[in-house]
Design brief:
Elements (H helix, E strand, L loop, with lengths): L3 H7 L1 E16 L6 H11 L7 H22 L3 E3 L6 H10 L6 E19 L9 E19 L3 E8 L6 E6 H12 L3 E3 L4 E4 L2 H10 L2 H14 L6 H5 L5 E15 L2 H14 L6 H8 L14 E9 L2 E9 L1 E8 L3 E8 L14 H23 L5 H7 L3 E3 L2 E3 L7 H12 L9 H15 L8 H13 L3 E3 L6 E3 L1 H25 L10 H19 L5
Parallel strand pairs: 2-3
Antiparallel strand pairs: 1-6, 1-9, 3-4, 4-5, 5-6, 7-8, 9-13, 10-11, 11-12, 12-13, 14-15, 16-17
Helix pairs in contact: 13-14, 13-16, 14-15
């Protein structure tokens, strides 16, 4: 079977990196804290007593304006059922919508959100009778499902109670489709992606140009058309919405000209990388430090899940509230997608202006995952290289000890090195030593403690062998290209070929005697014993 490098090189007809789903939060910065609300009602609105009844009046006026807007433009209002998927309802109604642009329908759903609540104070000297605080309550949300000339289908959701938070959902692939259509460039869609395009380079350039200004333009244009919870006087006083990123999906889609080969490739990737969700591997992919213990452990889960939706498998790597997933899209393309559910997971603020930086981080995560998979799937080393590792050598007048295949200490060392291959900032003596000690206990049942001095000795022979490099002026190390191949080759050969074969053909095989490998091995031993007996060389 061809490896991942040859398939991605020879059988990918289209490759595209693009922002997929964008989920944004609209908020009024001057109306987020209770004291700001009191100022809004007392000073800006001119009410002597800030009361929750005033918020109810604002809410009622806003809901009434929505219903009047729907009647005026003959837009249906749909109340979502509890178990009903909103996307399914939107798809059905969008299929019957024949205009080029407009509001398809308005959906109503009761959902939990953070709003202002109040309690009555009993201090007669306090000029403010009510005190406000933020709390979670169930309120009606109004979904404006729109069809936009630049973005295609999307929705804007308003909460019906102060501070009237907004949610905005868009899709970058749909934006790209409209850009190509406007330029008259032929393409073939693949759900919310592309199966083919006559100008793939232009397609990628357009995807890279998608930025905060395009999102802001969409939002401001529709805010001017839709009912608004704040009056023009409020907006003139700087009670205006700002946007922040709540979720961003950035995808790398590689479309195959031979779907069967692509499917086989993806299943091999799952087999090779089932351990990517361990904390050490998640830390390397996301380039963020993970603390498993201590006073401030990193929150969230760190694991790999292989999900089978029907017969289509999906590899999902989770980190805090974000994740990386790989799946075979519609039996045509390998999609690698980083889903950042909270920008703080990767050390970035939520402001919309940070969108280009978030895109760069997500692109690096996708590439780092594929680079690890490429090395793991194509790690064959040349016979002279394999032989040279087994013999002592001299380098710059220094004696270099051998790295013998099958030696428990060497195998533990290289297995631990596999965990640190994608790291961009290198690893330390201490970081690698804990994993080497763990693997030694697996490979040798009576192994002694693995000391710091032994780790220093092993790092020296890895460095002199050219398997790792030391970062200048730091006690940190990076694997070389040769080191990546040797680590994967030794580890996979030992764990997937040698140890299983010995277990099946040894003196007390774990497999039954009907096992083909054990049966063939017994025949070979029998023939060798027969030759030794004929040669009169038997003991």
């Amino acid at each position: 079977m061809a490896n991942i490098n040859t398939i991605l090189r020879d059988h990918v007809s289209l490759q595209l990196e693009c922002i997929d789903r964008l989920y944004l939060h609209g908020y009024v910065p001057a109306l987020q804290r209770p004291n700001q609300l009191a100022y809004f009602l007392n000073v800006h609105k001119g009410f002597p007593i800030p009361s929750p009844a005033l918020l109810r009046q604002m809410s009622d006026r806003f809901v009434a304006s929505i219903r009047a807007f729907a009647r005026r433009h003959r837009i249906p209002i749909v109340h979502f059922d509890r178990d009903e998927r909103k996307d399914d309802v939107a798809k059905r109604r969008l299929a019957r919508f024949h205009r080029q642009e407009g509001v398809v329908f308005i959906g109503v759903a009761q959902e939990r959100c953070s709003t202002f609540r109040a309690y009555k104070r009993r201090d007669p000297k306090d000029p403010f009778i009510f005190r406000f605080y933020r709390g979670e309550v169930m309120v009606n949300h109004y979904y404006f499902y729109v069809l936009d000339r630049d973005w295609g289908p999307g929705f804007i959701k308003f909460a019906s109670y102060a501070p009237f938070g907004v949610r905005l959902c868009l899709n970058g692939h749909e934006w790209l489709k409209r850009q190509l259509t406007r330029r008259g460039i032929p393409f073939q869609p693949l759900d919310n992606g592309f199966r083919s395009c006559s100008h793939p380079r232009l397609l990628q350039r357009l995807a890279d140009q998608l930025g905060p200004h395009d999102v802001e333009r969409f939002f401001r244009r529709w805010l001017a058309k839709l009912p608004h919870p704040f009056s023009p006087a409020d907006r003139a006083a700087n009670y205006r919405y700002w946007l922040s990123v709540r979720q961003m999906e950035f995808s790398l889609t590689q479309v195959f000209d031979r779907p069967v080969a692509g499917r086989q490739l993806f299943e091999e990737l799952i087999r090779d990388n089932l351990d990517l969700g361990r904390p050490d591997r998640i830390q390397l992919l996301f380039n963020r430090r993970v603390h498993l213990a201590g006073r401030h452990p990193t929150p969230g889960s760190f694991r790999t899940r292989v999900v089978h939706s029907g017969v289509i498998p999906k590899l999902s790597l989770e980190y805090k509230s974000s994740r990386v997933k790989q799946y075979f899209k519609l039996d045509r393309a390998l999609r690698t997608e980083t889903v950042i559910n909270d920008p703080y997971d990767v050390g970035v603020g939520r402001r919309l202006s940070n969108l280009p930086y978030l895109r760069t981080i997500a692109r690096n995560i996708n590439h780092r995952l594929l680079a690890t998979e490429r090395t793991s799937h194509n790690c064959i080393i040349a016979p002279p290289t394999f032989e040279s590792l087994h013999a002592p050598a001299q380098k710059d007048g220094q004696h270099v000890p051998a790295l013998r295949f099958g030696d428990p200490r060497v195998m533990a060392l290289l297995a631990a090195l596999c965990l640190h291959l994608p790291t961009p900032n290198g690893f330390t003596n201490q970081a690698l030593r804990s994993y080497v000690a763990h693997f030694r206990r697996q490979f040798a049942s009576h192994s002694a403690d693995y000391t710091r001095a032994q780790m220093t000795y092993d790092l020296r022979r890895l460095r002199l062998r050219g398997l790792i490099d030391r970062i200048p002026k730091k006690n940190r190390y990076l694997p070389t290209s040769l080191g990546r191949r040797v680590a994967f080759f030794f580890t996979k050969t030992y764990s997937r070929i040698l140890r299983p074969a010995l277990a099946r053909t040894g003196p007390s095989p774990t497999q039954p005697t009907t096992d083909p490998l054990a049966t063939t091995w017994r025949r070979l031993e029998s023939q060798i014993d027969h030759l030794v007996t004929e040669a009169r060389m038997a003991a």
